[in-house]
Amino acid sequence: MITLYHHPLCPHSRFVRLLLGEYTIEPTLIEENVFERRREFLMLDPSGQTPVLVEHQTIVAPGANVIAEYLDETRGQSLGRHRLLPQDPIARIEVRRLADWFGQKFFSEVTDWLVTEKIYKRYIPRERGGGGAPDMELVRAARANIRTHLRYIGYLAGSRKWLAGDLLSHADLAAAAQLSCIDFLGDVPWDENETAKLWYARVKSRPSFRPLLADRLPGLAPSPIYADLDF
């Protein structure tokens, strides 16, 4: 049995949920508000960040990259030639490079600012840094940065079948996880890059994506096109 500690709008958690979906694993999901600093959660991962995966109540894998590697090592071969982290070492470099690009660079330049300012601030107590209106300077910076990343996605999707090569990989799921959070907020300028939009529509249409499209937060409705596969 697998349990995943996550937050619905944590892109790193969403990456892992997509991975689990591709492996047809239905985890027990436990929503974790990391700002609460729960003792039980900190005992699993002292960094206090989502996601954290627990299997058989004894194996603890903290962080999206660690979880992705663990799932590949324990289940990757079951996917055969459709393995999400390729067998070839050179192909693995490109998949890992892009997964890191979206998990680190894209997150720090786009998703972190938008999700923190427009979502997390609503739920974090003021004494813990929450409350108040979004910092629109950060929001505007993120909206400007996403255009550069969208062009890069369009370039990759236009020159390959998937972002890292001929097959769906960690790179596609990491990118889609980040974009899905911003799409929830309605801040992706899809009309600016048709190639990136078509690539995202392909990932969005996969069965592994369906649970993400059902995510809702109290008092916050997703954008009108969020769950639309023909957006």
TrEMBL record:
Organism whose genome encodes this protein: Methylocapsa palsarum
InterPro entries cross-referenced by the UniProt entry: Glutathione-S-Trfase_C-like, Glutathione-S-Trfase_C_sf, Glutathione_S-Trfase, Glutathione_S-Trfase_N, Thioredoxin-like_sf
GO biological-process terms attached to the record: glutathione metabolic process
Domain GST N-terminal: 1-79
Classification of source organism: Bacteria, Pseudomonadati, Pseudomonadota, Alphaproteobacteria, Hyphomicrobiales
Domain GST C-terminal: 88-225
UniProt name for this protein: Glutathione S-transferase
PANTHER family registered for this protein in UniProt: GLUTATHIONE S TRANSFERASE D10, ISOFORM A-RELATED (PTHR43969:SF9)
CDD domains, A to Z: GST_C_family
Gene3D superfamilies with a match to the protein in the record: 1.20.1050.10, Glutaredoxin (3.40.30.10)
Subunit (UniProt): Homodimer.
Any Pfam family hit: GST_N_3
Keywords: Transferase
PROSITE patterns cross-referenced by the UniProt entry: GST_CTER, GST_NTER
A molecular function GO annotation: glutathione transferase activity
